[in-house]
Please model this.
Amino acid sequence: MLPREEELCAMLGVSRTSVREAVKVLSAKGLVEARRRVGVRVLSRDDWRLFDPVVLSWHPDIQNDSELISGLIEARRIFEPAAAELAARRGTGSDLAAIEAAFNAMRDSIPHDLDGVCRADLAFHRSVIAASHNVVLKGLIGMLKRR
Model:
């Protein structure tokens, strides 16, 4: 449980409106749950909207979160082959050109430009997902951004 609203205001030196707005944002992200007459409690990580770019940006050390990283790799192994299949079936000429350009950029950056390889790899995965023309998969593009 979080401290009562009045205590949070005093601790943080902010208004009740600020505390309420912060609780509203944290609640929308699945980090806390506010109940009248009960208070605000922090929810378990299973309830967090982990793929929300803002929640990801709040992560204290995402590169060392082995559970999250292995989960992402596992999920990629599940949906990327399906996205590639859809891209092959549904991709337009310009979609396929974007995939090819990203692939060529990766190839041309190896081994001398690691940053270029990373940018091209990201562009490649985004292009494949975009070419799938699947609205749900396209929603994942927002989480594929370089930190």
